[in-house]
C-alpha cells in the first residue's frame, strides 16, 4: 500500500445496478456476480486499511454498524458465536436496488470478506444465506475462514 492518502467518493446506490447491467451485456450473470464479489473484497480491504487501527473482532462489532449506516448500505449487526461469524443487514440498499427474487448482494458479501480478512489477518469467504429479495426480513451472511 502506498503512503498516499486514500480518498473516497460517494455514489448513488443505483450506480451499482447500472454497473451490473452494463457488465451483463459483456459477460454472464455468474461472472458479474463474481466480479462484484471481488470488487467488494478490494473495497472492504481498503476500508480496513484506512479506517481501523486494530486487528480486533470487537472493534469491528463496535464500529462497523455506524460506518455501514453512514455509507447508506443498511443497518448491520455482527454476531459471533465461537468461531462462527454472522452478519445481519436490514434495509440493505444493494438488495433493494438489485431487485429480483434471489440472493443479490454480491458486492456486500465481498466487502464483508475483505473487511474481515484485512482486519483479522486471515482470509475469509462470505456467503449470503438469505436475502431480502427472497422475501426475508434481512440479508444474512456467514463468514468462514479460508484455509491457505
Defining key terms:
single chain, alpha+beta, 5 helices, globular
Report on the structure:
With 148 residues, this protein is an alpha+beta fold. It has a single domain (14-145), classed as 2-Layer Sandwich (Muramoyl-pentapeptide Carboxypeptidase, domain 2), CATH 3.30.1380. Helices cover 47% and strands 19% of the residues. It is built from five helices and four strands. The protein is globular, with a radius of gyration of 15 Å. The protein starts with 13 loop residues before the first helix and ends with a strand.
Summarize the structure.
By secondary structure, this protein is of the alpha+beta class. It has a single domain, classed as Muramoyl-pentapeptide Carboxypeptidase, domain 2 (2-Layer Sandwich).
Per DSSP, the total helix count is: 5
Outline? globular
CATH fold assignment: Muramoyl-pentapeptide Carboxypeptidase, domain 2
Structure summary, number of beta strands: 4
Structural class: alpha+beta
Rounded radius of gyration (Å): 15 Å
Mean pLDDT score: 88
Q: Which oligomeric form is depicted?
A: single chain
- The secondary-structure element order is HHHEEHHEE
Q: Span from first to last CA?
A: 22 Å
Question: CATH H-level name... which superfamily?
Answer: Trafficking protein particle complex subunit 3
Could you name the CATH class?
A: Alpha Beta
Second CATH tier, the architecture: 2-Layer Sandwich
Which regions contain 5 or more consecutive residues with pLDDT less than 50? none
Strand order of the largest sheet: 1-2-4-3
Percent of residues in β-strands:
15-25%
Amino acid at each position: 500500500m502506498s503512503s498516499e492518502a486514500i480518498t473516497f467518493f460517494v455514489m448513488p446506490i443505483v450506480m451499482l445496478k447500472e454497473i451490473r447491467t452494463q457488465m451483463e451485456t459483456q459477460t454472464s450473470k455468474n461472472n458479474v456476480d463474481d466480479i462484484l464479489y471481488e470488487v467488494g473484497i478490494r473495497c472492504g480491504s481498503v476500508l480496513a486499511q484506512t479506517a481501523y487501527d486494530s486487528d480486533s473482532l470487537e472493534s469491528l462489532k463496535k464500529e462497523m454498524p455506524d460506518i455501514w449506516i453512514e455509507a447508506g448500505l443498511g443497518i448491520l449487526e455482527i454476531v459471533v458465536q465461537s468461531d462462527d461469524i454472522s452478519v445481519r443487514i436490514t434495509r440493505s440498499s444493494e438488495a433493494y436496488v438489485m431487485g429480483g427474487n434471489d440472493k443479490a448482494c454480491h458486492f456486500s458479501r465481498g466487502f464483508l470478506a475483505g473487511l474481515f480478512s484485512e482486519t483479522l489477518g486471515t482470509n475469509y469467504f462470505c456467503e449470503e444465506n438469505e436475502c431480502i429479495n427472497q422475501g426475508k426480513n434481512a440479508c444474512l451472511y456467514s463468514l468462514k475462514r479460508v484455509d491457505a
